[in-house]
Structure formats: C-alpha cells, structure tokens
Specification:
3-stranded antiparallel beta sheet, 4-stranded mixed beta sheet, single chain, alpha+beta
Length: 192
C-alpha cells in the first residue's frame, strides 16, 4: 500500500470517443481508453449529465427542510434535501435558490457554498454543488414540475439522524451535503 497522499496519478489515454443514445437527462458516450498499467484498450461508458445542486435548508428554529419523493431508479419514496439539475447558463447558486423555491415554496435570508463533489465519477461526468440556506421561510406554495410529486416537511436534527439510522434517508448526495453542516455519526468511535 502507498502512504496517504501518494495516490495513483497515471492518466488513461482516450483513444477515441463515440456518441451514444440521448437518454433525456443523460447523454451516453463511449470512450475507448488505454489502461496505463497494461496498455490494453477497452470501452468505458460515460453518462454526460448536467450538474446539479443540493440545498441544506435551515429555518431560524434550526429545523431542516426535507422532501419525500418517488425515485424511479429504486421504485420507492426517498427522503432527501431539496435538489435538482442546473439549467443551461444558470449559476449553481441561482439553481439552488430556484430549486428551494420550486420544491418547497421557501426563500432564504443567507446562502453559503459548501463546495462541490463528483456525484459518481465512475461513469458520470458532472459535479454536485452543495449549499447551505439559512433563515429559510415559506413565501408561497411549491411550484412542482409535471413529473414531481413532493411532500415537504421540517425535521429536527434528531429526526434527520433517526431517518438516516433507520434507512429512511439513504440518498448519498443528501447524506454528503448534510455531513458538511452537521456531524451525522450516531456516536464517535474511538479507534486510536
């Protein structure tokens, strides 16, 4: 094993790329790449995807906004934080404000960037931008898209932790964004 900070920095050469099918939200691309270790070529599937935003929205009472919605990939309801795709030409903060407004009918007094992460770099080419919205308050009813049916609720941190512990909240990007604001561990392990 290599010591920490000594990650593999070898580049994979892209031999050629071919467009794949357009899948509405995703556009498939096939990259023929050369493995730098053994020089063998193989086809990698890449899904070209718009970037998206996740919003950790907190009321003045320190309640966290969560939305429950049906997710087609897992064919079940998913408890998450407000999130969505960034529209072409839209800045990440603008998208975060729009998504919070559309999904919850809320606005925030203050916004802070929590940075970004690769959503799933094994096959997605996009980034997920994370934001903290403070002083969140309801200003109107949600404005849902044709394909949305959301149930918005306010949860305490204890309720969020319980939802994570019991498996009601499992969206990885939701968990990552929340962990940038709160310690989401049930207990601190002493492994020294």
């Amino acid at each position: 094993m290599k010591p920490s900070g000594q990650e593999n920095q070898r580049s994979w050469k892209v031999v050629r790329s071919e467009p794949g099918p357009d899948l509405k939200i995703f556009k498939a691309r096939f990259d023929w790449v050369e493995n730098p270790r053994n020089k063998k070529n193989f086809r990698a599937v890449v899904l070209e995807t718009p970037e998206w935003v996740n919003v950790v929205a907190l009321t003045d009472e320190m309640r966290i906004l969560a939305v429950s919605q049906f997710r087609f990939g897992v064919r079940r309801q998913s408890l998450e934080i407000p999130a969505g795709l960034i529209d072409p030409g839209e800045a990440p903060l603008q998208a975060a404000m729009r998504e919070l407004d559309e999904e919850t009918g809320c606005a925030a007094r203050e916004w802070k960037s929590l940075g970004w992460s690769f959503a799933q770099p094994a096959f997605l080419d996009n980034r997920a931008h994370h934001f903290l919205a403070l002083g969140v308050r309801k200003v109107h009813e949600p404005k849902l898209d044709e394909g949305e049916d959301l149930d918005c609720r306010e949860l305490t941190l204890a309720e969020v932790r319980e939802a994570v512990r019991t498996g009601r909240m499992r969206n990885s990007m939701t968990l990552l964004a929340l962990s940038k604001v709160f310690d989401m561990r049930e207990e601190v392990l002493d492994i020294e």
